[in-house]
Amino acid sequence: MSARDLIVLGSASAVPTKSRNHNGYLLRWDGQGLLFDPGEGTQRQMSLAGVSASDITWICVTHFHGDHCLGVPGIVQRIARDGVAHPVDAAFPASGARYWERLRHASVFHDTGVIRERPVSGDRAVLADGPFTLVARRLSHPVEAYGYRLEEPDGVTMLPDELAARGVRGPLVRRLQRDGRVAVDGRTVTLDECSVPRPGQKAAFVMDTRLCEGVAELADGVDLLVIESTFLGEDAALAAEYGHLTSAQAARVAADAGVRHLVLTHFSERYGTDDEHRFRDEAAAVFDGEITLVRDLDRVPLPRRRAARA
């Protein structure tokens, strides 16, 4: 299986700091590369992280505040300059189409035809349904904003002992997986007899929002939740006013949703490096699973698959 991991290209909020670039997150998934919220400087951060424009197959913008989209011109122009040949789907709130158009054509360059625009509207939209499902869900922010959820279909894990006991071997195994049944020595062997269900992996990306139904739906049962934690609990009133989450709120979402790995990011510049441990401490008081408080250029692997169900 190809790499499945998150590469953090930036983790600041509205104002970048000396140690944190504007937002940017590349989720690599079996040869696909989903670039979420490319903020200012994302193109350079990609170079530092050792990834290229050819790694990108999706650009997913949650909303059109600058720290989530000002890197779009550089990314699009790099895709064109590097001659990326495969299609690159671009998802963004339809209500911000005029901002997308300005960013997409921000300066003179030899344009590319590989960008396929996928404007999102309504409370919920399915953007892809193939090797994985990609869903956008409306969130609660002063401007229209969406979160994204990527979900692999459930599969099966084959049981070698059961296959051997029924004489299923070689090409018959693949046929059994494809068709759900095969004939062996005059007997029909079914897939259920020789396998157990294997839950598909899931990841969610939740940026600027207050607590709302959309957050809970996106986070439900995911293996990896990348979520903003702009404020500490002492500034919860500011978080509510500006449409953001605190670290403790993000952790409560993870705990209630059965998340396996909680990734905290999008930190306000009002806090210094000496405050960073407080984000983790507040989250750990609520959520007892794995927590990563990211730094720029971190690589966060998806958790190992959940065990197959007998």
Automatic annotation (TrEMBL):
Give GO terms: molecular function aspect only.
3'-tRNA processing endoribonuclease activity
According to its UniProt record, this protein's enzyme class is hydrolase
* InterPro entries, sorted: Metallo-B-lactamas, RibonucZ/Hydroxyglut_hydro, RNase_Z/BN
Residue sites binding Zn(2+) 2 per the record: 67-68, 208, 266
Lineage: superkingdom: Bacteria
Q: Which residues form the active site?
A: 67 (proton acceptor)
Q: Where does Zn(2+) 1 bind?
A: 63, 65, 141, 208
Query: What is this protein for, i.e. what is its function?
Result: Zinc phosphodiesterase, which displays some tRNA 3'-processing endonuclease activity. Probably involved in tRNA maturation, by removing a 3'-trailer from precursor tRNA.
**Into which family does the record put it?**
Belongs to the RNase Z family.
Q: What does the record note on quaternary structure?
A: Homodimer.
This protein is called what?
Ribonuclease Z
The organism of origin for this protein = Actinomadura graeca
